[in-house]
Specification:
The protein is of the alpha+beta class and 270 residues long. Helices cover 45% and strands 19% of the residues. The protein has ten helices and ten strands.
Length: 270
């Protein structure tokens, strides 16, 4: 351990660090776990781990199932997450807009942001007859495999892009993945020039999406707004109407975020 690392660690609170490690493992595994399973994943003495879990349970951050005795994340963890999401300006100003977009298009509407190589849905409204309910607030999807992610990448520099994807091969080769890093970069540049993405079964067969960027007051891509259309390919007679509706929603949200350079959801280049 370097001297700098030693200096930074000397101010840490051991008990808090251990409790957060347990929460991180419960979150990462996304399932109920026994005390023995948790103990295997965290480098903490048994007695210390037990006290940490008891404290977390007392505070509502961990829940112990009364019958099985298994542990899972408690309601207070979820409350923290939802309060954070609700505190984002993009959600506050965007929620009424995507509700109107849903009513206009008849399609489920979403707002998402980027966290590293993940797309995170931070707001959503479902269409009245929606049969597709695969995403909810907090859902994470890989940036490089989604049309929303491609649109989010239009705001990053080449240097940032390479730091996100340092290897020529992308993290996986699942259906919907570009062939490699350069293919993804080329697609992102085309998306940036176009100003929007229509992704037809790009990530999931039978589901299309129309995605526009959201700009903040500095002209940076703050997030994206999208609609989810439950068809393999959007009919030509609906395509332009739906695209226009999403563009108008994107422009409205961007203007509410303080950006004055959008018209129809597309950045005005000077």
């Amino acid at each position: 351990m370097s001297d700098m690392e030693k200096d930074s660690r000397k101010y840490l609170i051991p008990g808090l660090e251990r409790g957060l490690l347990i929460l991180m493992e419960l979150s990462r595994n996304n399932r109920e776990m026994s005390f023995a399973e948790i103990l295997k994943l965290v480098d903490i003495p048994k007695a210390t781990a037990y006290r940490a879990i008891q404290t977390l349970e007392y505070m509502g951050f961990v829940r112990r199932h009364p019958s099985s005795g298994l542990y899972s994340l408690g309601v207070n963890v979820l409350r923290l997450g939802f309060e954070y999401v609700a505190s984002l300006d993009i959600v506050q100003v965007g929620q009424p807009v995507i509700e109107s977009l849903r009513d206009t298009t008849g399609c489920s509407s979403h707002i998402a942001i980027r966290d590293g190589r993940d797309v995170i849905y931070v707001a959503r409204v479902s269409a009245a007859n929606a049969t597709i309910r695969r995403v909810s607030v907090g859902t994470r999807l890989p940036v490089h495999r989604t049309s929303l992610g491609r649109m989010l990448l239009t705001g990053v520099s080449r240097q940032t892009f390479e730091s996100l994807y340092p290897d020529e091969q992308l993290p996986d080769n699942e259906p919907g993945s570009p062939e490699n890093r350069e293919a993804l970069w080329a697609m992102v540049q085309q998306d940036r020039e176009r100003g929007y993405v229509i992704g037809e079964s790009f990530f999931q067969f039978g589901i299309s999406s129309i995605v526009y960027p959201l700009f903040n007051h500095d002209g940076e891509v703050e997030g994206v707004v999208s609609i989810m259309v439950p068809v393999h390919e959007i009919p030509e007679n609906d395509r332009e109407r739906l695209r226009h509706d999403v563009a108008e929603a994107a422009s409205s949200i961007s203007n509410l975020l303080g950006h004055q350079g959008t018209r129809g959801g597309k950045r005005q280049m000077g």
